[in-house]
Design a protein that fits this description.
Blueprint: H1 2-24, H2 31-56, H3 67-73
């Protein structure tokens, strides 16, 4: 039991040290940076799709009026 408790204590200490090291890190690449990249990609994609839809109207996205045409492509 003593060996188990000592092993558990060492494991917890190592995890705490790793956590503190990660929290004190000053690198810019993280979750927020990745989220901003994804958000920019989604906004640019939406703008591109809106531009194509404005140019070509019904040929970019199928309308509910053309059920037969939509089923033919499936």
């Amino acid at each position: 039991m003593k060996k188990f408790m000592k092993n558990a204590c060492c494991t917890i200490t190592l995890k705490a040290m790793n956590l503190r090291e990660k929290l004190c890190e000053k690198r810019a690449e993280g979750y927020v940076d990745t989220a901003i990249k994804i958000l920019i990609a989604v906004v640019l994609g939406a703008l591109l799709l809106a531009g194509l839809y404005a140019l070509f109207s019904d040929t970019v996205l199928f309308s509910l009026r053309y059920i037969h045409d939509r089923d033919c492509y499936a």
